[in-house]
Amino acid sequence: MVLCPNLTFRPRMSVLNEAQVEQIHQATLELLERTGVQVTHPRALELLDGAGARVDGDRVHIPAWMVEDAIRQAPPRVVLGNRSGERKVFLEGDKYWFGPSLDCIDYLDPLTSERRRFVSDDCRITSTVADGLPNYTWVMTIGMADDVPADIADRVVARQVFTYTEKPLVFCCKDVDSVRDIYEMALLVTGGEKAFQQAPTCVHYSEPISPLLYYDPAVEKILFCAERGIPLINYPAPQAGSTAPATFAGEVVQGSAESLSGLVLAQLVKPGTPFIYGAFATVMDMRTTVFSYAAPEMSLMVAAMAQMAQHYQLPFFGTGGCSDAKFPDAQAAAEATFSCLASALVGANLVHDSGWLDHGSVASPAYMVLVHEILDMVNQLMAGMPISDDSLALDVMDKVGPGGHFLNEDHTYAHFKDVWYSDLFDRTVLDEWRAQGERQFAERLRERTKEAIEHEPVSLPDDVLAEMDKMAEHWE
Known about the structure:
The protein is of the alpha/beta class and 476 residues long.
């Protein structure tokens, strides 16, 4: 007799109730209408004024109806593809996808533990590691190349990513010319505009300046992306007590307003522009003044904004897997676990910064490997506990009976691989650990990272590589 159907429940977390979500929404509308945002870009001012915003010099007051119209016009899902055109990352609802971050100035060598400036070849290594680790479903450019001219460094690292991983790229760059060049590389590797629109292989990341300010180059990039249908992240970085109110609710309201103001502009350029909402809302540590990448309050505000995104039916750009520690040590592991689990539980969609150390200043391949292992644990929990006749196991328990064992049962053979077995964390007994050389965690992490670096990504065709060489000559 069937006792129950096959039921699966995924764990979930909420930090706001429905009434609080509505309060934050109404406060966001009030902030945009009463206080507004500062914009100096002439075309943006013309678009906003013509659509019904109240423009007073460089202060733009955006009415509530205009914000809500923009939310309705934006697509509720954005699908990203790899460079082969396969649709891989589905940003919708509470699905989550983790990826490493961008723009670190330093690099922590995983084999020597030397810390130095990040150079372009380091991006080859970090891209290769990200390509080979399946829990990272998309990538960023990881660092800022210190060994090439600053004017072309953003293109150089983007080229490295396109070359050494097939996964979708989120990129940041200095101006609209850089966006254009990186977009042209994306068209080259995906096979043209039609293929790109079917499954965009890159997303542009742009930032308003907190509090409530847009500088012209950022506006130029928003306009360019909207015109061409390039998915756009508009992601401010408010800091509680510094560039945002000291209260967490106030900071969420400000970050939401800053992100949605960019949504309004993008939808005015082209209704239906793919847009990803969010804000990196965290605290200023008043003892050190750092912008903390691992404060528990950061995860609280990420969760709150993820709920706002789900309320708006907009894809969300989240944060997790980063640390304020200097090395991939116990502090880094604890902070990564906390933020990764929180982001997964709330369904934070495109979760970035996995593998960042020292409050966003150093890229570490070893830490990328450690966070990837943590994500294995997170994914195991998030899979939930399926309930069915087979999983309830009444028949096999009845067969074995009191005092027996299950080692020889077919049921055990069918299910023992449901358990997660780590390639990094040690479960051996003490004598076995000693017999295997007494390798401590740091040594095991170094060996596992070396294996990840030796991964061989799928190569781009020779003609594509040759065309990239020509593009690079144009940058120079």
